[in-house]
Specification:
CATH superfamily: MetI-like
CATH architecture: Orthogonal Bundle
Number of helices: 11
CATH topology: MetI-like fold
Largest sheet: none
Distance between the termini: 55 Å
Shape: elongated
Strand content: under 5%
Length: about 230
């Protein structure tokens, strides 16, 4: 690494050599996490809704217990959650630093949040949606996929957008445990080395990323609304 990079301020001409690899790490983190969040959280949200009094197979006691577990991940600030599950993270990944170590708490934090968003999206549907599916003799799976999720698609997309933005923010926080990505770059250079050029660059790239995600999400919501 050149001496100029080790100084207090990285020259603007060299900022991209640090910023681009860090940004790609952030994209990888958020992408992997969102795959698990959408799959697990989406299924959890569907179960929460359909075991409630509004769903296809109401199970009040199960819904209360399952909902309580779903709330645990939302109860702690992300930084506290990362610290609290360090032994579990080490068990799963074999390490407590790096991208692997960040992915585990990010999934645990993002899944219940997305599940509740999906549950709320389904609750906002007209009661006639389930009724029409039942009258049409559809199976529970058909009603869930072709009626509930199909009608709630704009709200689900909005939920994915919101959750993706949260995961970008969480990935920045994960930089405090050496997870890599934009957050780690900001901590290592912007904070510890007082590198203002790197700090300004990371702030700008995070703001732009969130704006782009929100713009894409809003367009998809408008396109799928009917």
């Amino acid at each position: 690494m050149s001496a100029s990079v080790l100084g207090n301020n990285t020259p603007w001409s060299e900022v991209h050599t640090l910023l681009i690899p860090a940004y790609l790490e952030t994209l990888a983190m958020v992408g992997i996490v969102m795959v698990f969040v959408i799959a697990i959280g989406g299924a959890t949200g569907v179960v929460l809704y359909n075991t409630s009094e509004f769903g296809l197979f109401p199970r009040r006691r199960f819904n209360l217990v399952f909902g309580w577990f779903a709330n645990i991940g939302r109860s702690l600030p992300f930084l506290v959650l990362m610290a609290a599950i360090i032994p579990f993270t080490r068990l799963i990944t074999g390490t407590t630093i790096g991208i692997k170590a960040a992915i585990v708490p990010m999934i645990i934090a993002g899944t219940p949040f997305f599940a509740r968003l999906v549950e709320n999206a389904l609750r906002d549907l007209p009661k006639e949606v389930n009724a029409v599916g039942l009258v049409s003799c559809g199976s529970p799976l058909q009603i869930i996929v072709k009626a509930q999720l199909s009608e709630a698609l704009p709200s689900v997309i909005a939920a994915i957008t919101l959750n993706t933005i949260s995961m970008i923010e969480y990935s920045a926080i994960a930089g405090t445990i050496g997870a890599g990505g934009i957050g780690y770059l900001a901590v290592l250079y912007g904070y510890q080395r007082f590198d203002h050029n790197i700090m300004i660059s990371t702030i700008i790239i995070l703001i732009l990323s969130i704006q782009i995600v929100q713009w894409i999400g809003d367009r998809l919501v408008r396109k799928t609304s009917h």
